[in-house]
Amino acid sequence: MLPEQDTAARHRLKMQKRKAHQDAEVASKTIEKGLLIVHTGSGKGKSTAAFGLILRALGHDWRVGVVQFIKGVWDTGERRALERGFTDQLVWHAMGEGFTWETQDLERDKAAAEAAWAQAQRLLADPNLSLLVLDEINIALRYDYLDLEAVLAVLRARREGLHVVLTGRNAKPGLIEAADLVTEMTLVKHPFKSGVKAQAGIEF
Amino acid sequence: MLPEQDTAARHRLKMQKRKAHQDAEVASKTIEKGLLIVHTGSGKGKSTAAFGLILRALGHDWRVGVVQFIKGVWDTGERRALERGFTDQLVWHAMGEGFTWETQDLERDKAAAEAAWAQAQRLLADPNLSLLVLDEINIALRYDYLDLEAVLAVLRARREGLHVVLTGRNAKPGLIEAADLVTEMTLVKHPFKSGVKAQAGIEF
Questions:
Q1: Residues in chain A within 8 Å Cβ distance of B107
Q2: Is residue A166 within 8 Å of A138, Cβ to Cβ?
Q3: Which of A31, B98, B121, B133 is deepest in the core (most CB within 10 A)?
Q4: What CATH class does A34-194 carry?
Q5: B165 to chain A nearest CA, in Å?
Q6: Tell me: the pLDDT tens digits for B49-64?
């Protein structure tokens, strides 16, 4: 056997084994249910990955709800893009009034968080939705603007097929405990550190 | 002063300080340039966050290119959704032939990676693009189907304003070194572990 034939043969054998392993793995998973998904960590991509999931869901002709607990100071490109093509599949509520250091008013922040959660509960009861994104709810939970146990009780009682995504840094341990799928976005390197500004299309 | 007034006043002061700090931070960042962005790690959300960035970019009326180095076995919801509303802003090439354990053919995998990179280079030369996503290119780099130094030389020579996103686990140290923005998606908890299968709309 020539050396390169040997390499190719060994590669094929290794990959055949891996494929058998993968196929067995996939076959062993049989449960289908709505997932409780958490995107947390101090890195980028928590909300962005949630918007990617929204896009995927829309491509499957699902109906999707979004409640933004913290409304950024910017009108986001994502929302503009989604509203261009999918208004009939999408219910979007931007409820927060800005970051907490923008309002500088604790009571107003609490009231905004409660109003957003009330809106989220209305969407949780909507039988047409397949995916609900509670964007930056972790911030409201972290500062105890909302009670975690009360929120979890409502989420646990939701329809079986409904997927819910909760985003924001500092997800509480009790939320991670209750979730099915948790990803931490970890900051490895950020351009702000070398003086690069927040740019349209990347940061917002 | 009543205790609740005291709390509100302290909160306001703390948030005023934080806002001053934030404003100074923002004002100190003045550089605008196309970023080299890497999404890596074994967690979910690497490609999904890239698709979220595509969505944001489309919302800003940018033109976007996508080269998929590993074509999944599924027709993704993201692509279907994006092609519904944005065909004129989007150039999409699904080049890979599947996962390496699907083809079981080293030479075919290498040829597919090289063809995808040739396509990526054509898009890098397109003056109309503002964002280029090289999805799962890290896999091709990891297995040395592509030479990292050759890829980095081409990326460094790109137009100044062009943002490039590279996704896939096991990003090479040299790529992280060269990048402006690196996020590691870390797996904290995955539903596969409790027997839940890959579900349409969530995994693909």
A1: 8
A2: yes
A3: B133
A4: alpha beta
A5: 11
A6: 998 899 889 988 999 9
